[in-house]
Write a structure and sequence with these properties.
heterodimer; A: mainly beta; four-stranded antiparallel sheet; globular; B: alpha+beta; five-stranded antiparallel sheet
Amino acid sequence: MNPLDSKLRSINFVWHGKLDDFVTSVAWSPDGSRLAAGSVSGQVAIYDAAEGRAIHLFEKAHEDGCDALAWRPDGKALATTGRDGTWKLWDAVEGKVLIEHEAGALWAEHLAWSGKPIGDRGHLLALGAGNKVTLWNEQGAPVGEPLKLSRTVADVAWIMNGSTLAIATSTEVVVHDPANGEERVFKSRDPVLSMAFSPSGKWLMTGNQDCTMHVWNTDNGAEMHMRGYAAKVRQMAWHRASRWLAAGGGDTVSVWDCSGKGPEGRMPILLEGHTDLISALHYQVEGDWLASGARDGSVMVWSPTQRQTQVSRARIPSGVTRTVWSPDGKLLAVTGENGEVQVLAME
Amino acid sequence: MTSVGITAPGDLDEAKLSEWLGTLLRTKGQDIFRMKGILAVKGRDMRFVFQGVHMLMDGRPDKPWGKDERRNTLIFIGRNLDRHALNEGFKACLA
């Protein structure tokens, strides 16, 4: 091995905070100036991104636990939801609840703001609770009728540049256009655990209960089934240009080339280095680096298409629950099973 | 919301433990928000650290017990937890 190959960039721990327990959700504000994080016991903190000072700490944002949080696109408000069956819109500057609603089920686990204003209604928040998805506007008022699914909602995401809603349940992925109510359904033979649409919208991947990954080409309906994963593929991350898809499902990250006809029949790039199950994956929004975290606390940064794929490595004290790049790609937030909220910068 | 904490000295039978936790997850997974514990498993030198959030449960070996007393501490946090059933279920796993 060429000695130059083993030279990794060093990582600096810029700051670290700590929530009271397992961090379930973490998100950078749209301008990257703040970081919000929520714990399984219900604590939510808003940190100053540069120094890690906790600007706000809500001890019990949700009784029994916070499951998801999402910044309103203007960065002035934060939506949170959890085990108490409510969702709340917080004024992120004042640190007060602006409005609170019943989520429509015993608890709610999925929250996402549209990437674009929808018609003349502004940005919409999609909330997944039980087998329903409800939509809300920027002031927190309900919009339209709840979308009823046949099973419990497993994931919610805005696709096609954030204008169209994708909802995963255990049996299908439903794509819903809120502008005209049109829907398209992708039925799955195997119970679905996770979903990832390419930014272009062409490819839909699901990670399934039986440790396989299913792929749809949404242009022509062609399907592919990928086997051979050691564990359930719960983490998937798309490169911004919609060609490379990184997947967990074991200790090794596999990166699939989805150009042209797609990944079937191709060998993935295998990123080896973790020695425990991958628990977090995220591609830079604007760059080409992939961050991965594993249950033993190891963190790695990769440049999957370079000859030397490993860029850097680090470790946090407990299992990694999330790795999320800041909007400008300069900082990496890593959160842990024991409440760690750590922000790293590459040299 | 309630929490049930269990502590007991002694070793656990690995097969019985696995079966008990598997059944718990299937039947009570929706009500158990959080599970944490350090367990002594018969035949294993290392502590077994258990971590569960919602329906996801995972255990892994940790530091060796060495000269420390082999003992178990387990906590369940959730709603509608049956304290008696959890204690009895745990006791049945003792080797």
